[in-house]
Write a structure and sequence with these properties.
The structure holds two protein chains of two kinds.
Chain A: H1 2-33, H2 42-67, H3 71-93, H4 99-119, H5 121-138, H6 141-147, H7 155-172, E1 174-176, E2 179-185, E3 188-190, H8 192-207, H9 214-233, H10 237-255, H11 259-278, H12 280-290, H13 301-313, H14 336-369, H15 373-397, H16 415-451
Antiparallel strand pairs in A: 1-2, 2-3
Helix pairs in contact in A: 1-2, 1-14, 2-3, 2-4, 3-4, 3-5, 4-5, 4-14, 4-16, 5-16, 6-16, 7-8, 7-9, 8-9, 8-10, 8-15, 8-16, 9-10, 10-11, 10-15, 11-12, 13-14, 14-15, 15-16
Chain B: H1 2-51, H2 53-57, H3 64-69, E1 77-78, E2 84-89, E3 99-101, H4 109-112, H5 121-125, H6 127-131, H7 137-145, E4 154-157, H8 161-171, E5 176-182, E6 188-194, H9 202-211, H10 221-224, H11 234-244, E7 253-256, E8 259-262, E9 265-268, E10 276-279, H12 280-285, H13 289-297, H14 301-310, H15 336-343, H16 353-364, E11 368-370, E12 375-379, E13 385-388, E14 393-396, H17 400-416, E15 430-437, E16 446-454, E17 461-467, H18 473-490
Parallel strand pairs in B: 1-4
Antiparallel strand pairs in B: 1-2, 2-3, 4-12, 5-6, 5-17, 7-10, 8-9, 11-14, 12-13, 15-16, 16-17
Helix pairs in contact in B: 8-18, 11-14, 13-15
The chains are: A mainly alpha, B alpha+beta.
């Protein structure tokens, strides 16, 4: 009887997971399109949380049945309480903040907990602590963003921090898989390039606070180039691409001049060509992207295993614990998206991308209605950094672009990745507070104007 | 002064506003670009995964198929008349204990194939479907309650046990191959290759068969046999002649004295028999080598090469399982001797029975070729159709007019030529025989070929036969073809 029930529950769970994810996305889109009154969407946000909890519960129940391991239920309760805590605390601390960022962050972390539990329970446990600590660290970030009005004055401090930190990694860092990208501290590997990304966005944003002239673009652009070159020398190509992309988007938004994008495109193309000629590991990745099947034994192994996972997944997935995602090397870090599609299907996979997109579009919309150039650039820069990282990791895993070895924010396992992503979203939440402040300010000013 | 200042300030703020607008436009463009990028990526992902689904499923690096085989009983294979051709049995719910059983033994050895030690035939082509399950959760739950395994989807083939039996029996102890295809749909009704093996005992036979170089029992001669086409190639030489002579052969005459010499090369008729004064139709019906060598030396080499390309020579055949590529020596640089040899299907030319059958089908179907296939549909254990393999056109190999003229010539082969043993009261048939010499050392050893179709008025099936080392096609292959046609048209 027990197994009879189990078959129905596990068999139907795939559809339930997909549908709750779709509902979550639909609600997110509704919120996105009626966003003039941020804090009047409470019902939608709460419904989103319901979808999130339904997804979470179904996934863990399914895994408990399949594995027969009831300790998972304990872990589920802990995760659930953590998510609930984040949602409630954010609501209490910042009642006027945009809840979409918090909700999306929790939804993605929930997905991360589900797939990590399935892939490697120990890593899921570690992830739980990383998330808890990161949340504690970054809960105050929106407050800092809102209250400290002098953040745009530290331009050269941001640049020095960035270049110094990346430089130290280049010189002293350990070699991991052909790339010098990490410090190791008490067994937890830490990639400074992740956190520096945020500092870098602050740097570029503060660069354009006053002037938007050619010379300003040149100065900021060359400092950005230094960052990118250090990363290229460290063989951290994924981060180099992200930094370059952030810089181009922010210059474009700051100046409104498309010529800079074309210029950067030419420069980037030439750079890629040179990198292809110079570095064997770049060649290997590009060749494995063009035809992974001939190199299935070595450089194409990861990507072909990822493609196998995607193709067996189809629309609703093979079901949690039913696939073999652990066949993909480094699945928890770089290929977590493929594992999600294999076991939960394209429906959940594409919905997940849509969740990322709603966060990004929300950041852009915020940017577009901000009058302060610094915060406008901050919103756009952070949003672009986030979405481009998603693009790199998912695109690499599905053979849309060559592999770059970056993580999927909030979902992949990893200390610095999770911390950085959380801080990034908290900054965006802080910027949403500025949007409110600006609105109130101009409303008051207009009212005064009318009185006069 | 003050006004000037105010004006300047106004200008400044206008400029700033304008700039903000441009900046906002940049944000919108960025958003649109990234959205498009994500849409493209999602579409690419789904498309790549679905178009390469079966290819990836069968990749030996993919563990998915193995996992499924540990979960379900492998699906059954049925003939088009509903007979069970292959099924699996297991002890209780232990999927690892499953055994594959082939009730017809040797009869379907190459067409159904086997599924251990690699895969072959329908077992290979349908592997993806035979491992996937679409019968719903309630069946699964029921099986679980009865502690049994559920069976994956079944594959229904196009094969007909009656025709297959006749083809299998008719070949007897000879080595050779038979293929019967439905002309208008491309459904393969029978496919026999000999020597064969018992797929039930594949495990114990495997090593012996691999090492046995004389019998090559594992080879499916229908699809992978490479034979000299012999006189059946005259169909192609004729097509080329028609193309170079405005679809007319009425002006052609030749006086055959048993051999033809040109440029120091000599071609002899079969057993050196002289055919006397012959026109084109008689040359074709009597399969006069001398006359066709004479035709051959008059042909344009590059046009001939093009025609052969149209007929799928030197190309992968439109067939889902492994098949050999047919070769020809005809090209711009072919010397006269080889061109004469090629025109009568000797020398370096090679063709598989499947390929010859395709050409025959195209002639029968007005020039258009339907893709030959073995799988008709996939059904779940609960009876719902999972996938239908419909008729699929490969395209036109020749014009309608050309196919009509070839049909006429091939009809005369049966009426008054080398295929008179095929004459029947109940149907009219058209075809071409061949006696392909395969040894350059001992003359006289020849493979007996026949390829043809019936009824002429509205063709239904095409039969292609080769019997290795039997002798002349008219004597050995045609009677077997007749048994096949008789069986098809009387049942």
């Amino acid at each position: 009887m027990n197994s009879y029930l189990e078959i129905y529950i596990t068999g139907l769970s795939g559809y339930f997971l997909g549908i709750s994810y779709i509902l979550y996305v639909v609600l997110g889109c509704v919120i996105l399109f009626r966003d003039d009154d941020y804090y009047n969407n409470d019902l939608m946000y709460n419904l989103q949380n319901v979808c999130m909890f339904a997804f979470h519960f179904t996934a863990f129940m399914c895994m408990c049945f399949r594995s027969g391991d009831m300790k998972l239920m304990g872990f589920y309760v802990a995760c659930q309480l953590l998510m609930l805590g984040i949602v409630v605390v954010a609501r209490i601390l910042y009642p006027y903040a945009d809840r979409l960022f918090t909700n999306n962050m929790c939804m993605l972390m929930t997905t991360g907990f589900v797939i990590l539990t399935r892939l490697n329970y120990n890593k899921a446990l570690k992830q739980f602590f990383i998330v808890s600590i990161s949340m504690m660290i970054s809960m105050g970030v929106p407050f800092v963003i809102r209250r400290f009005k002098f953040l745009h004055t530290f331009k050269w401090i941001y640049a020095s921090i960035g270049i110094a930190a990346l430089g130290i990694v280049l010189i002293a860092g350990t070699v991991t898989y052909g790339a010098n990208i990490s410090y190791t501290l008490r067994g937890i590997t830490f990639q400074p390039s992740e956190l520096i990304k945020i500092v870098f966005v602050f740097f570029v944003a503060s660069g354009f606070v006053r002037a938007r002239s050619m010379s300003e673009v040149f100065v900021t652009g060359s400092m950005a180039l230094v960052h990118v070159l250090i990363l290229v020398l460290s063989k951290d190509l994924g981060s180099a691409l992200i930094f370059a992309f952030i810089c181009v988007v922010m210059v474009f938004v700051a100046t409104g001049n498309f010529l800079y994008v074309i210029g950067a495109g030419v420069l980037g193309g030439a750079g890629t060509l040179i990198a292809y000629r110079m570095f064997t590991h770049v060649q290997e990745r590009i060749d494995a992207w063009i035809d992974p099947w001939i190199a299935i034994d070595n450089s194409g192994y990861q990507i072909t295993q990822s493609l196998f996972a995607l193709s067996s997944g189809s629309a609703w997935g093979v079901g949690l614990m039913n696939g073999n995602p652990n066949a993909i090397p480094f699945v928890e870090d770089d290929f977590v998206f493929s594992a999600i599609v294999e076991e939960m299907g394209f429906v959940v996979g594409i919905s997940l991308l849509a969740v990322c997109m709603t966060s990004f579009i929300r950041a852009l919309k915020m940017g577009a209605c901000l009058r302060s150039m610094f915060y406008r650039l901050l919103a756009v820069g952070l949003g672009s950094s986030y979405i481009f990282q998603v693009f790199l990791t998912v695109g690499g895993g599905v053979k849309f672009i060559p592999l770059t070895g970056v993580t999927l924010p909030f979902v992949s396992y990893g200390g610095s990745s999770v911390l950085t992503s959380i801080i990034l979203f908290e900054v965006l939440t802080g910027v949403s507070l500025i949007v409110q402040d600006e609105k109130d300010f101009y409303e008051r000013e207009n009212a005064q104007h009318d009185e006069e | 002064m003050r006004e000037k200042m105010l004006n300047m300030m106004k200008n400044e703020s206008l400029k700033a506003q304008k700039h903000m607008k441009r900046s906002s436009a940049a944000i919108v463009y960025t958003g649109i670009a990234i959205c498009l990028l994500f849409v493209c990526m999602s579409v690419y992902m789904v498309r790549y995964a679905s178009t390469h689904e079966i290819e990836m499923f069968d990749n030996s690096y993919n563990t998915y198929a193995i996992r499924l085989s540990r979960e379900y009983l492998r699906g059954s294979i049925y003939s088009s008349d509903g007979q069970l051709l292959a099924y699996s049995e297991a002890e209780g719910a232990d999927a690892a204990s499953q055994k594959r059983i082939y009730p017809y033994g040797n009869m379907f050895a190459h067409s159904i194939g086997y599924s251990s030690h690699g895969r072959m035939g329908v077992e290979s082509e349908g592997n993806f479907y035979l491992l996937n399950y679409h019968s719903g959760l309630s069946n699964k739950a029921q099986a679980e309650a009865d502690s049994e395994l559920v069976t994956a989807d079944s594959v229904y083939t196009t094969l007909d046990t009656g025709l297959q039996q006749v083809a299998f029996d008719s070949l007897g102890v000879y080595k050779g191959a038979v293929i019967i295809t439905e002309v208008k749909t491309g459904r393969i009704l029978a496919m026999v290759s000999k020597p064969d093996f018992d797929p039930n005992q594949i495990d114990s036979l495997w090593n012996d068969m691999l090492n046995d170089k004389t019998n090559t029992s594992l080879l499916n001669r229908v699809t992978q046999g490479q034979y000299p086409p012999g006189s059946t190639f005259k169909i192609i030489t004729t097509l080329e002649y028609l193309r170079e002579n405005n679809n007319s052969y009425s002006n052609y005459h030749f006086n055959c004295n048993g051999s033809f010499t040109y440029d120091g090369s000599t071609i002899k008729c079969y057993h050196g028999s002289a055919h006397g004064s012959v026109d084109f139709a008689t040359s074709f019906a009597k399969s006069c080598n001398s006359s066709f060598a004479n035709i051959g030396v008059g042909l344009d080499r590059s046009m001939f090469e093009q025609t052969l390309e149209d007929l799928l020579f030197e190309k992968d055949l439109p067939y889902d399982l492994p098949s050999s590529i047919s070769h020809t020596q005809v090209s711009e640089s072919t010397d006269t001797h080889n061109l004469m040899q090629a025109s009568i299907g000797q020398g370096q030319d090679s063709i598989s029975p499947l390929h010859l059958n395709m050409i025959t089908c195209a002639i029968a179907d007005g020039g258009e070729l339907m893709k030959p296939h073995l799988i008709d549909r996939v059904e779940s254990e609960s009876g719902s159709v999972v996938k239908n393999f419909g008729t699929e056109s490969v395209g036109r190999l020749m014009t309608k007019e050309e196919s009509a003229l070839l049909t006429g010539l091939m009809t005369e082969v049966v009426e008054r030529g080398t295929g008179t043993r095929l004459k029947s009261d109940s149907y009219t048939a058209a075809g071409k025989t061949g006696s392909a010499e395969f040894s350059t050392l001992s003359k006289g050893d020849s493979h007996a070929w026949f390829t043809g179709f019936a009824p002429v008025e509205s063709p239904e099936i095409a039969v292609t036969i080769i019997i290795e080392g039997a002798g002349s096609g008219g004597e050995y292959a045609v009677p077997i073809a007749k048994r096949m046609f008789d069986r098809y048209f009387t049942e």
